[in-house]
Amino acid sequence: MSQPVLICRPGERGEALAAALRERGENVESLNVMQLEALPETPEMRRIWLDIDQYHKIIVISPFAATCLSEALDRFWPQLPIGIDYYSVGSATAATLYDQLGVRVHVPDLSAGEDTSEALLALASLQQLAHQRILLVAGEGGRPLLAETLAERGALVTRAAVYRRRFQPLAPTLQTRLSSGNYRALIVTSSELLEHLAKWCNQAALNQPLIVSSRRLATLAGILGFCDLKVASGATPAALIAALETCDPQGADVDQGTY
């Protein structure tokens, strides 16, 4: 059997990526090192949901955040308030919002080349934000770039953390595969996951192809020591598969390097 493509993506998005790769005949192994867990609803969060009609714009960071938002609004708003503009960094989040809430969603322009916070912030409708109330729906932690930039542009920003990331160690067999570099390529779409996986990457792994979903992730990967970087045009299965196609079909040569 050919060397596997290793993917590191939790939940339904990981399952969708694995299925798309297998449809192309790829051998796939999932590195299940992170789970997403919805946070208990707090009184502060409940106030946000009850006052949702007070926001001019809602920006949702991930598909899981979109699901958490949808479940909350279903409880408090039998009919969605009108006049709110919805935004997301990526098309998968936009699709989740449309499927679950029936709302149209602003996403980065395709000409931006990738789905990132920076690309979202380049939208014309997010330039002049004086006195506009904006809700960011996201997980715990993460980069403050969006909130800081929106505030600099005049917005009144509220951040709702609706889920947490729970990390766990790799299974021993997958630790061995990763550290030995015995795979065709590794696909990672989050900085937290990349930093977590780097703990098990020796020189053999660092020399293997790493596919990331943005230039920002590529910069982090370079700092962590990864040598063979492929930057996809986004985090969709199609974009990641297109980047995989630029890799050697047989995988890179495993080189243990020097220490």
What report would you give on this structure?
- The strands form 2 sheets. The protein has a 6-stranded mixed beta sheet with strand order 3-8-7-4-5-6. Strands 2-1-9-10-11 form a 5-stranded parallel beta sheet, sandwiched between helices.
- The protein has 2 domains: 5-33 and 169-246, 3-Layer(aba) Sandwich (Rossmann fold), CATH 3.40.50; 37-165, Rossmann fold, CATH 3.40.50.10090.
- It is 37% helix and 20% strand.
- The chain is an alpha/beta fold and 259 residues long.
- It has 11 helices and 11 strands.
Distance between the termini: 31 Å
Figure out the total of helices. 11
- Helix-and-strand structural type: alpha/beta
Major beta sheet summary = 6 strands, mixed
Q: How many DSSP-defined strands?
A: 11
Total number of domains = 2
Encode the helix/strand succession as letters: EHEEHEHEHEHEHEHEHHEHEH
Reading off the top of the CATH hierarchy, the class of the largest domain is best stated as Alpha Beta
Unreliable segments of 5+ consecutive residues: 251-259
Radius of gyration: 19 Å
- What proportion strand? 15-25%
Summarize the structure.
With 259 residues, this protein is α/β, with parallel strands linked by helices. The chain is 37% helix and 20% strand.
Strands, helices and their partners?
Blueprint: E1 5-8, H1 11-23, E2 28-30, E3 34-38, H2 43-50, E4 57-60, H3 63-76, E5 85-88, H4 91-101, E6 105-106, H5 117-121, E7 133-139, H6 145-152, E8 156-167, H7 172-180, E9 185-188, H8 191-197, H9 203-206, E10 209-212, H10 215-224, E11 228-231, H11 237-244
